[in-house]
Amino acid sequence: MSEKIGLKEAISIGIGGMVGGGIFAVLGLAVALAKGGTPISFLIAGLIAFITSYSYVKLSLKYPDRGGTVKFINQGFGVGIFSGGMNNLLWISYIIMLALYASAFGSYAPNLFQLTSDKVLDSHIYASSIILLATAINYYSISVVGKIESYAVIIKLVILLSFVGFGLYGLFGNPHLEQLSPEHWESPFKLLTAGMVIFVAYEGFELIANAAPDIKNPTVNIPRAYYWSVVFVIFLYIIIAAITVGSLEFSQIATAQDYVLAEAAKPMLGKIGFTVITVAALISTFSAINASLYGGSKVNYEIAEDDELPKEFTRKLWNQPIGLLITAIATLILVNTLKLESISTAGSVGFLLIFAIVNCTGYKLSKEINGKKSIPLIGAIFCFVAMIALLVQHYAVSKSDVYIAVGIIIFCFVMEYLYKKTERHEVS
Question: Among residues 298, 312, 341, 291, which one has the least CA distance to residue 71?
Answer without folding.
Answer: 298
